[in-house]
Design brief:
The chain is mainly beta. The chain contains 2 helices and 12 strands. The strands form 3 sheets. Strands 4-6-7-11-10 form a 5-stranded mixed β-barrel. Strands 2-9-8 form a 3-stranded mixed beta sheet, with no helix packed on it. A two-stranded antiparallel sheet has the order 1-3.
């Protein structure tokens, strides 16, 4: 049965907030190198196993990001700080599908994927535990339809994107586990990934 993780949701990000930077000096340089990482968490559904995740996903595909992400940032004036603060930030990228496991979609189709992160004032602000969507990166996606935008979201964030063993994705200096597509290895859904490797031809 699905459980809900209750984590404090923070909507306003301002200059006075404390950031965390997990960059390793030995990491290969990338476009996020030198940025401060600010991460906030929100409530997410927890899938106990692959079967639950498959059932809840509208589309399951292998796809590759074919362009650079586009960012949309929402601000709201805060009287206490007397300035506009970020209340939401999200990016969109397009994947080209190379293999379909589920969904009304075909190989070669291109679809948009949304994720809640973006760059502002020299910071990478992320409401997602997934690393950014970088051109050329290839992943296995478990996607759910967006209710208010064209395209899809990864199912419950880190439950919805996994490495393709043969893929060589772009480096990401702000992540301790860029090959897993997460900022911290503890956020990777290892048990479900093991089920995927047994069941899926990836």
């Amino acid at each position: 049965m699905k459980k809900l993780i209750s984590i404090i949701t923070v909507f306003a990000v301002c200059v006075t907030l404390t950031a965390c930077n997990t960059a390793d000096e030995s990491t290969v340089s990338d476009k996020y190198d030198g940025l401060e990482l600010v991460r906030w968490h929100s409530d997410r559904v927890v899938y106990e196993d692959l079967a639950q995740l498959e059932k809840d996903s509208h589309v399951i595909v292998i796809g590759e990001f074919i362009g650079d992400d586009n960012q949309d940032t929402d601000y709201q004036y805060d009287a206490d700080f007397q300035k506009d603060l970020i209340i939401n930030i999200q990016s969109t990228n397009t994947i080209r599908v190379s293999k379909v496991f589920k969904g009304d979609i075909e190989e070669g189709d291109c679809v948009d994927v949304h994720q809640r992160y973006g760059i502002a004032d020299g910071r990478l602000i992320s409401f997602s535990d997934l690393t950014p969507m970088q051109k050329g990166d290839k992943w296995l996606f478990f996607l759910r339809n967006s209710t208010d935008l064209n395209g899809y979201w990864c199912a419950s964030d880190t439950f919805g994107r996994y490495p393709v063993p043969s893929a060589e994705n772009e480096p990401m200096s702000l992540s301790e586990s860029p090959e897993l597509g997460v900022y911290a290895e503890g956020n990777f859904q290892r048990d479900i990934y093991n089920e995927i490797l047994e069941k899926y031809d990836i």
